[in-house]
Amino acid sequence: MSEIWFRTGEATVLAAEGQATDAMPEVLIGSVRGPAGQAFASMMGQVVGHTRMFVVRDLNQMVRPATMMTTKATIHTAEYVELLGGVVQGAIGDAILDCVIEGVLPKDGLDDLCMIVMVWLDPRCAEDANLDKADLYRTNHEATKIAIGRAMRGEPTIDELIANRKTVKHYALDGVVEY
């Protein structure tokens, strides 16, 4: 395996109708000896409101490559932490393992790599009595796999970005910027 130094990827998978379970992970994959490894190690301490944790599939089942996850939203409740460290963490762990099984991540040399996954978990999920946890799992599993794949393939390429410069715009710019 050639050394993977610093690769990034992201993806968005939308929730089922009536749910706030959109998933928007951002991943960093790289060598434990490089900047990704340094960033990974520096995340070992906690920051108030932004819990950091190793990704585990279940008790005593930490994924490889070693992966640290943190939320992009400030945590205010125990219910939020339970979803983040439960369904979302399990979905991300399964997605990482699936990426190894499917050859997206190289099986050889996994202990030389580390990953950081920044997770979007909408705070409304923790307050929703009708939360569809299966949809929360689905969106996070699928989006994590897509983000890792994009990171490993270097997508989108600069040529793709240039080609769609006038046809793709951020949803928040609708009515703000005309192309």
Automatic annotation (TrEMBL):
Tagged with keyword Glycoprotein: no
Q: What GO MF terms are annotated?
A: carbon-nitrogen lyase activity
A biological process term (GO) from this entry: carbohydrate biosynthetic process
Q: Which Gene3D superfamilies match?
A: Formaldehyde-activating enzyme
Q: Where is the Formaldehyde-activating enzyme domain?
A: 8-171
Q: Which InterPro entries match?
A: HCHO-activating_enzyme (IPR014826), HCHO-activating_enzyme_sf (IPR037075), Ribosomal_Su5_D2-typ_SF (IPR020568)
- Key words, A-Z: Lyase
Q: Does the keyword 4Fe-4S apply?
A: no
The organism's place on the tree of life at top rank: Bacteria
Protein's name in the database: Aldehyde-activating protein
Source organism per UniProt: Prosthecodimorpha hirschii
